[in-house]
Design a protein that fits this description.
The complex is a heterodimer of chains A (317) and B (385).
Chain A lengths: L2 H30 L17 H8 L1 H33 L5 H13 L2 H12 L5 H9 L3 H8 L11 H8 L11 H26 L3 H10 L4 H12 L1 H16 L3 H7 L10 H11 L3 H28 L5
Helix pairs in contact in A: 1-15, 2-3, 2-15, 3-9, 3-12, 4-9, 5-13, 9-12, 9-13, 12-15, 14-15
Chain B lengths: L3 E10 L2 E11 L4 E5 L6 H9 L6 E6 L2 E2 L10 E4 L11 H13 L16 H19 L14 H13 L5 E5 L7 H18 L2 E6 L2 H7 L2 E6 L2 E6 L1 H6 L4 H6 L6 E7 L5 E3 L2 E2 L12 E5 L4 E3 L8 E10 L4 E6 L7 E5 L1 H5 L6 E6 L5 E3 L19
The structure holds adenosine-5'-triphosphate and magnesium ion.
Amino acid sequence: MNLSRSSMWFVAPAVFLMFILLIAPVFVAAILSFTDYSLGNPDFNWVGFKNYAAMAKYSAYKKMFSASLLYVIIVVPVSVLLGLGAAMLISSLRFGGEAYKAIFFLPVMATLLAMAIVWEFTLDPIVGVVNAYLTRGCDVGWWYQFISGAWYGADPTTSWYGNGCNEGFPLWIGDKDYALFTIAFIGVWQAFGFNMVLYLAGLTSIPRELYAAAAMDGADSAWERFKLVTWPMLGPTHVFVITITSIRSFQVFDTVEALTRGGPSKSTYMMVYAMYEKGIQQNLVGIGAAITVVFLVFVLALTLTQVYFVNRKVHYS
Amino acid sequence: MASIRLESITKAFGRTQVLNGIDLDIADGEFLTLVGPSGCGKSTLLRIIAGLEKQSGGDVNIDGKTVNDIRPSRRDLAMVFQSYALYPHLTVRQNLATPLQLRDMTFTERLPIIGRLAPGYSGKRAAIRDAVKNVSDTLQIEHLLDRKPGQLSGGQRQRIALGRAMVRDPAGFLMDEPLSNLDAALRVHMRAELSALHRSLGTTFVYVTHDQAEALTMSDRMAVMMDGEILQLGEPDEVYQQPMDIRVARFVGSPQINIVTGDMDDDGRIAFLGVKLARRPSDGTTGRISIGLRPEHLYLHPHTPGKTFCGELVYKENLGSEVFLYIKVADTEDNIIIRVNPTEAQSIALGDETHIAHEPGKALIFNDQGRRITLAGSPLGEDAA
Ligand SMILES: Nc1ncnc2c1ncn2[C@@H]1O[C@H](COP(=O)(O)OP(=O)(O)OP(=O)(O)O)[C@@H](O)[C@H]1O
Ligand SMILES: [Mg+2]
């Protein structure tokens, strides 16, 4: 046996496992997306692009795309900027930084499903603390004046808050105008601690001498130093944080499943939830697989963008 | 142009005292080197002059004005860092322009597009372009202007860092070991170039290094620092030839000065390794003394009682133009190092017994506190043996 043959025997198990565990499932999903297979059925029919056509045709799937995209568009920038802000504040602390880190990281560590239950109680229109306090605030004169804008001469009843006092406050996850934003809020709450930790790592890797150089060169304000040193030096971190947060936001599932089940009227019908509903609950494996493939294309596109930026722009060489 | 004056500067980080009352007068246009072993507080002192670090006590004066509360960029000093600290995301051209943009252009003028509309924008732009061009001509870095720092060699980065400091035409330069990341040959070359630059600019240079060779070759005056104090301040020749403290004698000079312990007989005469010095301490010092002998002041000599001491040759360090002999002498801890010329070195083999004499008047005597002792009837050190 010559050398190259024997070397193939050595890599074969790893390649085999990689294929079976990592690549094959994607292929299987891709193949299933062209069928009408249901779990338990002995066989299936090829249906061509029918599943994909359905995705383009029915409004439920249009809502799925717009809900997913809107969710990502809200959660990514907000949680990234909050994460960066928190990281910069914490790293400028002389003491107490560790405590803040632990506290902000709590939502990341806690199971989102368990936390979703807490949020469900908090946001409940009848017994939840949010609406209870909002309602109580209506009777506190200065607070009502302040929030409803009466202090600068606006008509309080036309403001959001004044309206809420009269007509009742939103149902949050039960209201199709608010549900997605509420879910996105919880998404931000959960994600920014993670981004903060990544940014903290990025901040510690900035050489202190660069700040000294910036101070000598006349970057006198904190904003100038941020612009000249902090922001550009965090380049690789930005790309990583944004990509990871986008992928994780695309994958949002727990909160949807626990709080809204895609409703009301599909306003929170996000992709992974749709996959689950179609492919598992309704046993429409073909359409579930088609959603999966589209989902993977999105994620792949994000990842490739990251690779592009990492190679091109942020490595400064 | 700037003279810099430090008055009893102290600095403590928490409970660690790093600087213990530094007084220093740096003349306008002077090249002053702060030299000392690692951790003695050189960088800290330089950062205090720059304003990057706040002193715990004492005053920094620049041109007669106290600048304790003036921010770094307003002190009109420029700094070159050991790691160069170039902005890695900017091209060399932008790196060089940054200090000028920050100093000369207003916030609005620096905004990407709106800035162009500001009155005076194009004039300032042109002035900055000219300044960058001048500096890159002087340092011969025009061909690097469009590269990023990551695409440059260490030596090139060093030049850019120098350029960024020069472009503002500051009143003084502060340099923190700017050559320590370069290879030996380039370092020697840059030493000459920095000296030339200093002559042509005529500005004050404060230069920090732990390399005594850099201090000796470049400076007008050097300050030897140790443990947060300046032990000696003077011209390089003076510091080398007349060290006032045994730590200075040990630090300055390569290879190191030979230190041997000596005795004083009842008569006050100094003897070491069987050699007697003719002169006595002027101040009647008694107790343990140390004698410092530089390698170039020792030579091979036929055995003469009272004048030579002997030892065994254990190692020859051949530097081509000169050879250092390491000689094991009984009763001394370290080998005695002597400098000879290559022909002399050939006449003697490892393991040979050798006899050594010292040049009269060159022995440096230190008391048990390590302070220099003057010898009677002669100025410092001139003790005709
Ligand atoms: N920010 C700081 N916090 C605490 N201690 C510090 C700090 N900066 C410096 N020190 C201490 O101060 C002392 C002097 O440091 P400094 O950097 O001035 O030394 P140095 O003479 O420049 O040494 P080197 O030649 O290695 O650069 C060191 O013991 C160092 O540990
Ligand atoms: Mg230092």
